[in-house]
Every structure is written in structure tokens, then in C-alpha cells.
Design a protein that fits this description.
The structure holds 2 protein chains of 2 kinds. Chain A is mostly helical. Chain A has 8 helices and no strands. Chain A has helices spanning 3-39, 44-59, 62-77, 85-111, 115-123, 128-158, 170-181, 185-211. By secondary structure, chain B is of the alpha/beta class. Chain B contains 9 helices and 11 strands. Chain B is globular and about 50 Å long. Chain B starts with 6 loop residues before the first strand and ends with a helix. Classes of the chains: A mainly alpha, B alpha/beta. The A-B interface holds A 114, 116-117, 119-126, 130, 134-135, 138-139, 142, 214-216 and B 55, 57, 89, 92-93, 95-97, 99, 101, 103-107, 116-117, 120-122, 149-151, 162, 165-166, 169.
Chain lengths: 216, 257
């Protein structure tokens, strides 16, 4: 097997990896904001539910969570699980897990904004929604970028856990090719792929940080 | 409505506690159009709490509050009963508040800080808001700073921007909560100059301050607060020549008597 065929095989896995990555961010970033609202809610029940949710998501292995999302519908409701559900289950599992981490990052950011910002907006007649989306949230984004970057980089590497549901992402393919051909080459290529992917992530996040450096 | 004796702000028998701590015991204040009232007194005497209750950042426990005869809260059975939120929101247009720490929006340029409130809550279109903002900034000596961001400005300049931001909504009455306490003496001067010019234009103002000399020369009326009650009240001459031992002591200590 030549390098070209190997890359071709890995290429399919790369696309799956990128797909998991993009979809997870797309849904978990906004969901995390909702969860952080719940975590800071004045309503004790909502607050407790959010706390328990975050605690479970952070306290158990993501791989186990993926298995629960995939097999749960069958064991709990006797639903028939189709093969097509695999990728969906991976996305649901990742989104639920990452939303919990993002929620705590948002909370830290929101709570770090001085109360004077809320008071100034209130006296000027801003509604609660206007205060949050125009005054608070933009400042939160700037403050949470470094920890969010950390999570996003972790996510790139975590995508390999999708193998637990036999979704053929990058690393699954690399292992298959490696054992079939008895060579570590595919694993090295996979490592290089993750590294370059993360260089790109770091570059993008850094340029966003630079863009937001116009104020302090 | 253009009556000089029109009462813009009425506070009657305000009471406010934080937990067991009684911060305001019984406070009443009536401010007429064009009046400048200064509230002075030692730290912890409740001065800032009065402003925070008057601007509805805090709710009183008891007492009533009204702007131009429209009630925000009435005292009923020993408790303040507030109007519904939608009604309270309408009362916000009557007043502005200048904070000790400026509280400018750091991610907005100076111009946007002054423009956006006009557009969001004052119903102005972009052109009108910008024209108004630029003329206010020019008046306060900040014409060249319109495109700067708050962190690029000195404390005095930031405070002047926050005054412009409050004025842009054309409030009937403007509150100042220790507007110069975060500034060094040099910067204090430039902010006091602005407040003085507003007084010359008969802007109605209630000022909580530690600047005794300034309060003395600018105010129509001075209120000396201590431990949640008014210890002395009157014209600057009356308060500064008060027989009240505590007042004399305080003014003596500040060195402006």
C-alpha cells in the first residue's frame, strides 16, 4: 500500500473528525450559555438541575457518556437503534459534554464583569436583554477567549473518542490501517493531522483575541 | 410646567436597611427645578444609599418617591409599594446618574457611549444622536476624544464623558455620586468645572460629595447626613456656621470651615 492510498483512507476519517468538531462547537457554545444562565438562575430548582448536570458531565468519562447516549434509547424506552443514529449520538454526546464546560467558563466571565456596568445600563434605561447582549456579553467574550481556546483544542483531540460508537473518524481509520499494514506510519500521520488542526485553531483564536484587543 | 417652583423630586420618609444595619432612618428631600443640593457627611452616613434609592438601583423599605408628581413608590402600612416595572421604566427618563467610578462601557468608543443610550432609550435616530453627542462632547472639551476608547482617557476625561452620556438623555435632574472621589486633585478640578458650568445653566442637581469648598460655593442647599439621619440642613452659610458639634467637627477635620 502506498502513501497515496493511505492518505486517501485517512482523508475520509479527517472529514468525519472535522464534522464532529464543527457540529459540536456550533451547538455547545450557545447551549453552554443557556446552561450558565440556569447555573446562575434565581430559581433554586433550575440552579440545582444545572449544577447536577454540570457535575455529571464533568465527573464521568466522555466515552461512557457517548455509550449512554447511543444505547440509552434502547435500554430506557426499547427503541430500535439504527446504524445511522451513531453519528447523531456522537454529536449529542459531545455537545452535552462540552456545553457543561463552556457553561462554567461563561459563568466565570459573566461574574467577572463589574456590577457598575449593569447599574450604568439600568440607569440609562437599557432593558435586561439590551444590557446583556450589548454591554455584558461582548465583554464576556473577550475575557473567556483563553479558556475557550483550551477547550476547543481539547475537543480536536477528543474527537477520537467517537471510535467508541464505531464512527470512523480520523484516529479509528489510522488504527485500522496501521494494524492491517503493520506499520506505525498512519498513526504518525494522524498525530501530525491533529497537531496541524490545532495550530490552525490556535491561530484563529489568537486573531480573534487580537481583534478584541482594541479596548481594555 | 415651566414653573420655577416646580418640585422635580420628592422623597418622603425614606427608610432603608441592609440586613440588621439601618442605613437610612428617616430621610425626606424635595428638590425644585434649578436647585443644586449637596449631600455631605462622613463615610457610612447613608449619602450614597440615598442616591441609589432615588435612582432605583436599590429599593427603599419604607417611604415614597416621586418625580414631577409621578409616583415611583408610595408608603403603605409602613412599607414602600413600588409601581409596576413598566411604569418605573418611564420614570427613568427624568433623571441621570454620574457614578464615582464612571462606569463607561469599555468596549464602546466615547461617541458610542454617548450615542447608544439616546438611540435605545431616548428614541433618537442615529444622526440626531450623533449630532447631540458631538455638541455635548465639544461643550465638555472632549471634541477630539470622540473616537477614543475609555481606557485611553484620564480619569477626569472619563468622568466628563460619563457626564455627557447622562446629559445626552436630557434628564430633568442629575445625580452625582461622589463624582471626584476616584480622581487626583488636578483631575478633580476639571470635573468640578463642568459641574459648575451646569449649575450656571440652572441644571437641577443633587450631589453627594466630599468637596466641602465646592459644595459651599455651588449649592443652594446643603444636607449634612450622619448615621442615617439629617444632622443639619440649610443654605451653605447656615450649615457651615451650624452649632451642631458633629457638623463643626467634620467640617473642621476636612479643613474647609
Amino acid at each position: 500500500m502506498n502513501i497515496q492510498t493511505m492518505l486517501l483512507q485517512l482523508g475520509g476519517g479527517m472529514m468525519v473528525t472535522v464534522e464532529i468538531f464543527v457540529l459540536t462547537l456550533l451547538f455547545s457554545l450557545p447551549l453552554g450559555l443557556l446552561v450558565s444562565f440556569g447555573r446562575m438562575s434565581k430559581n433554586g430548582i433550575v440552579r440545582t438541575i444545572s449544577k447536577v448536570y454540570i457535575s455529571i458531565m464533568r465527573g464521568t468519562p466522555l466515552m461512557l457518556q457517548l455509550l449512554v447516549v447511543y444505547f440509552g434509547p434502547y435500554y430506557l424506552f426499547g427503541m430500535k437503534i439504527s446504524a445511522g443514529y451513531r453519528m447523531t449520538a456522537v454529536i449529542i454526546g459531545f455537545v452535552l459534554n462540552y456545553a457543561a464546560y463552556f457553561a462554567e467558563i461563561y459563568r466565570a466571565g459573566i461574574e467577572s464583569i463589574p456590577v457598575g456596568q449593569y447599574e450604568a445600563a439600568k440607569v440609562l434605561g437599557y432593558s435586561q436583554a439590551q444590557t446583556f447582549f450589548r454591554i455584558i456579553f461582548p465583554q464576556v467574550v473577550k475575557r473567556v477567549l483563553p479558556p475557550v481556546t483550551n477547550e476547543v483544542i481539547t475537543l480536536v483531540k477528543d474527537t477520537s473518542l467517537a471510535f467508541a460508537l464505531a464512527v470512523a473518524e480520523m484516529f479509528t481509520m489510522a488504527k485500522q490501517v496501521a494494524s492491517a499494514q503493520t506499520t506505525v506510519m498512519p498513526l504518525m500521520v494522524a498525530g501530525l493531522f491533529y497537531y496541524i488542526f490545532n495550530l490552525l485553531v490556535a491561530f484563529v483564536m489568537e486573531s480573534i483575541e487580537k481583534k478584541l484587543a482594541y479596548y481594555r | 410646567m415651566e414653573n420655577q417652583d416646580q418640585v422635580l423630586l420628592s422623597i418622603d420618609h425614606m427608610k432603608k436597611s441592609f440586613g440588621d444595619l439601618e442605613v437610612i432612618r428617616d430621610f425626606s428631600l424635595h428638590v425644585k427645578k434649578g436647585e443644586v443640593v449637596s449631600i455631605i457627611g462622613p463615610s457610612g452616613s447613608g449619602k450614597s444609599t440615598i442616591l441609589r434609592c432615588a435612582t432605583m438601583l436599590e429599593w427603599m423599605d419604607d417611604g415614597s418617591l416621586s418625580y414631577l408628581g409621578e409616583y415611583a413608590a408610595k408608603s403603605e402600612n409602613g412599607k414602600s409599594v413600588y409601581q409596576p416595572k413598566s411604569e418605573l421604566k418611564k420614570l427613568h427618563r427624568h433623571f441621570g446618574l454620574v457614578f464615582q467610578n464612571f462606569n463607561l462601557f469599555p468596549h464602546y468608543s466615547v461617541l458610542k457611549n454617548v450615542c447608544e443610550p439616546q438611540m435605545l432609550t431616548g428614541g433618537a435616530d442615529k444622526e440626531t444622536a450623533e449630532k447631540n453627542a458631538r455638541s455635548l462632547l465639544a461643550r465638555l472639551g472632549l471634541a477630539e476624544k470622540a473616537d477614543a476608547y475609555p481606557f485611553q482617557l484620564s480619569g477626569g476625561q472619563q468622568q466628563r464623558v460619563s457626564i455627557a452620556r447622562a446629559l445626552a438623555l436630557s434628564p430633568d435632574i442629575l445625580f452625582f455620586d461622589e463624582p471626584t472621589s476616584a480622581l487626583d486633585p488636578e483631575l478633580t478640578g476639571e470635573v468640578l468645572k463642568v459641574i459648575r458650568s451646569l449649575a450656571d445653566e440652572h441644571m437641577t442637581m443633587v450631589i453627594v460629595t466630599h468637596e466641602m469648598q465646592f459644595a459651599k460655593e455651588l449649592s443652594d442647599r446643603i444636607i449634612f447626613m450622619e448615621k442615617g439621619v439629617v444632622a443639619a440642613e440649610g443654605t451653605p452659610e447656615e450649615v457651615f456656621s451650624s452649632d451642631n458639634a458633629r457638623v463643626r467637627e467634620f467640617i473642621g477635620a476636612i479643613g474647609a470651615g
